[in-house]
Every structure is written in structure tokens, then in C-alpha cells.
């Protein structure tokens, strides 16, 4: 059997995984909810680096890898590129276009956590939407600030941090309610692209709030690159019928 390995963990990846029949593999890093409604196999956990992934591709007779990981999962994308080259397996990738600033936006780019801290220093009530990164710094919150941190999993906060466990998509009304309840005066975000989490940027724009935007990492080349899940899904459906 000609097998596909789909590297996922995003909404785009899940949309693609839904068309994979039994025998193909949807791989997750082991974080978040493991879907149970799919026909394909679901694999959670790492591969053991580039060499481990290359061996997996060989041993499992994988004929195509589709990288639909998060735009900030750059290490996984690099490992996939190098492992596919070692195993002589083609690599397709979904590369969601980055958001672009619009009229009225006040974006302030940061390249790492240190620069994020510098950019939010003048504000009192930041909203962090970086996943788990801010959770590692709860003990560093200045006395002048209270952080609201939104991530996938519940986590205890402290006297200067509130944790919101929620999964997108998020709409305008819900984001407005969160901004009001938490008194948000600045948003900290990855430039993830897509529509699922874009509403926070629209609310920041309409309220004249700054957005500290974490710069996107450089991602490796692939044999085919798709802008969205729909085009990747259609191409994969066609590829499967040709095997």
C-alpha cells in the first residue's frame, strides 16, 4: 500500500486528515486533543530527530509526507525536509500566508521573548496568545502588570496572571467580551495567518490597541507548497486516486 504521513496539530491538518482512509497516518506532537473521528491512524509523539523520522519513512513505506504543522513549528518542518531528502520521499507543505497590517493597525514586531517583554513594558493588561510560552514566565510578571494568557490547556495562574484555556475559532463578539472583562490594552500574538484566530486583531484595530507580533521563522522549501488546506486536500485526493 502507498502510504501518506500527514504532520499536523493544526485545524488545516485536521481538515486534510479527514480525507485520509485507513492505512495512512496522521501524526501529532502529543499536545492537545487527539482526534478520534478519523479513518486514518493517529500517531502521537516525536520521531527521534531527523534520523528517526527518516527510518520511520523507510520502515513504514511512506510514499508522501504532507507538512501541515503550525507556521511556528519550524524545527519540525526542517526535520521533515531533511528526513524526506534522506529517505527520498516527496514533501508537500501547507504554508498559510501571514497576516498583513491594515489601515489603523499598530503592530510592533518582536523576534524573541526578550523583545516581547520590552514591547509590552509600557502596558498594564497584555493578552498573550503565544500558546504555552508565557506560562514559563509567570514568576517574572512585573508588579505593574496583570497578564491574561490564552492557551489550549488549563493551567494555574497566580495573583498577576489569569489563564484562559480555549481553542479557536474565535469570533468578534467573543473577543470583545474577553477584552472588556480582562481590560486588555495590548495584544501579543504569533503571525499565524488564517481566519480562526484573526478576530483579536480586528478588535485591537477597532479599539486602537497595539499588537506585539512575534516574527515568523523561516521555513524550508518543499516539493509542493499550498496556501491553504482546501487546495492541499484537493491535490492529495487526486494523488491518492492515482496510486
Task: Describe the overall structure.
This protein has two domains: 3-96 and 217-242, 3-Layer(aba) Sandwich (Rossmann fold); 106-214, 3-Layer(aba) Sandwich (Rossmann fold). The protein has seven helices and twelve strands. The chain has helices at residues 11-17, 49-59, 74-87, 113-120, 172-182, 199-207, 229-242; strands spanning 3-7, 25-28, 41-44, 62-67, 91-94, 106-110, 126-129, 147-151, 161-165, 186-190, 210-214, 224-226. The strands form two sheets. Strands 3-2-1-4-5-12 form a six-stranded parallel beta sheet, with helices on both faces. Strands 6-11-10-7-8-9 form a six-stranded parallel beta sheet, sandwiched between helices. α2 (49-59) packs across α3 and α5 (172-182) packs across α6. The chain is elongated, with a radius of gyration of 19 Å. One of its GO terms (molecular function) is precorrin-6A reductase activity.
Amino acid at each position: 500500500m502507498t502510504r501518506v504521513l500527514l504532520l499536523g496539530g493544526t485545524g488545516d491538518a485536521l481538515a486534510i486528515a479527514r480525507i485520509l482512509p485507513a492505512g495512512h497516518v496522521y501524526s501529532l506532537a502529543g499536545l492537545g486533543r487527539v482526534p478520534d473521528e478519523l479513518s486514518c491512524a493517529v500517531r502521537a509523539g516525536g520521531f527521534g530527530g531527523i534520523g528517526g523520522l527518516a527510518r520511520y519513512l523507510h520502515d513504514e513505506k511512506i510514499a508522501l509526507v504532507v507538512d501541515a504543522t503550525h507556521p511556528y513549528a519550524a524545527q519540525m518542518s526542517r526535520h521533515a525536509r531533511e528526513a524526506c531528502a534522506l529517505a527520498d520521499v516527496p514533501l508537500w507543505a501547507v504554508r498559510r500566508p501571514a497576516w498583513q497590517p491594515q489601515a489603523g493597525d499598530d503592530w510592533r514586531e518582536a523576534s524573541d521573548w526578550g523583545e516581547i517583554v520590552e514591547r509590552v513594558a509600557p502596558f498594564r493588561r497584555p493578552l498573550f496568545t503565544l500558546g504555552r510560552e508565557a506560562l514559563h514566565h509567570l514568576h517574572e510578571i512585573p508588579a505593574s502588570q496583570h497578564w491574561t494568557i490564552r492557551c489550549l490547556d488549563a493551567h494555574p495562574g497566580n495573583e498577576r496572571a489569569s489563564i484562559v484555556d480555549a481553542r479557536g475559532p474565535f469570533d468578534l463578539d467573543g473577543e470583545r467580551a474577553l477584552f472588556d472583562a480582562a481590560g486588555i490594552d495590548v495584544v501579543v500574538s504569533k503571525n499565524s495567518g488564517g481566519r480562526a484566530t484573526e478576530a483579536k486583531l480586528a478588535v485591537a484595530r477597532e479599539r486602537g490597541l497595539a499588537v506585539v507580533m512575534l516574527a515568523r521563522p523561516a521555513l524550508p522549501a518543499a516539493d509542493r507548497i499550498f496556501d491553504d488546506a482546501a487546495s492541499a486536500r484537493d491535490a492529495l485526493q487526486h494523488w491518492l486516486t492515482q496510486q
